[in-house]
Amino acid sequence: MSTDFDFFHGTWDVVNRRLRKLLVGSDDWEEFPATSSSHGVFGGAGNFDEIVFPTKGFSGMTLRLFAPETGLWSLYWANSRDGVLQPPVAGSFTDGSGEFFGDDEHEGKPIRVRYTWTEITGDHARWDQAFSTDGGRTWEVNWIMEFTRR
Description:
Elements: E1 10-19, E2 29-41, E3 46-53, E4 58-67, E5 72-79, E6 89-94, E7 97-106, E8 109-118, E9 124-132, E10 140-149
Antiparallel strand pairs: 1-2, 1-10, 2-3, 3-4, 4-5, 5-6, 6-7, 7-8, 8-9, 9-10
């Protein structure tokens, strides 16, 4: 529904864990901080956030748009390093958790992308990103964000 991302409005401290190398079977994670600020648009049928990674020297943004005719959200990511709006992932929430899927490329090879939103409370949320090289049969989680409301 169009209020699914209302929980995310406000300012958050973020702990990031990200794989240093993707799709090579690595278990070498890096951890770094961020701050995210989010607000609704279109009377709730949209959401925008900006996230700043001070130790990494870049920032990112996500635009989320709700399509009432399908009941699906489309999520679009871009960052300040390349200024490119990435292909969207689309999906919805069920029982308080969200799953969003899309197609993209990693190092020139097609991949399936999954974002999940879980552990959502008034003061906490968890997001992760996973890639699949086999059409979604198996997934490698490569980025985890733990959000704590500021």
